[in-house]
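Schema walk-through. Below, the input block comes first and the output block second. Nothing else is stored per chain. Lengths vary across the set, and this one has 171 residues.
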Amino acid sequence: FGIFRLYINGFCYGEKAPEHSWFGGVDYGFEELLNNKRNYDNFFENYSDLEIIKAQWHFFCVVPFPSAAKKVEMDNKEFLGISGKDFRKSFYSFRSEAHFDDGSEVFLFNNDKLVKLLGYRDLGLDETDDVIIGDVNSVIIPRKEFYDIIQKSLDYILSERDKAIKICQMY
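--- output ---
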C-alpha cells in the first residue's frame, strides 16, 4: 500500500487524497520497463491524443474479457491505421501495474530517442455507452531522462519497502 502518482505537465494521475492506493505491481512494472526497454514506437503522429485514447478504450474496454472468436475479430480489425494485433503492442499501460483510484490511465510510447506519456481520466459512460474522457495531457521527453526517472523511482520504492520489512521484523 502507498500513494502512487504520475505527473504529466503538472497534472496528477492517481490518488489525490491521502488515503492509500494499491500498487503491488509497480516495482515489477518498473523493473519490466528497465529490463526490456522495448520500443513502443508507433507514436500515432497523425492522430490527436483524444483519438488515441478513444481507440485504446474501444479496443480494450468494450469487451474486457473477449472470447477467442472476439479476440480474433478484434486482432483483425483496424485501429488508428494498424491491425488490432499490432495495436495491442503499440504502447505500455501503467494501469496494468498500478491501481489508479481516480479512474486515470497513462500510456507510454517510445522509440530510440523519445518517450511520450499520455494520460487521461475515464469519467464514465455517456448515454450511448461511449467513454467520457477528461484531463487529457501528454508530454514528450528524452528517453534517457525518462528511464533515469524510472530507475530512481524504483530505487526509492525498494528502499522504502526494505525499511518497512525491517520495522515489521522487529515486532
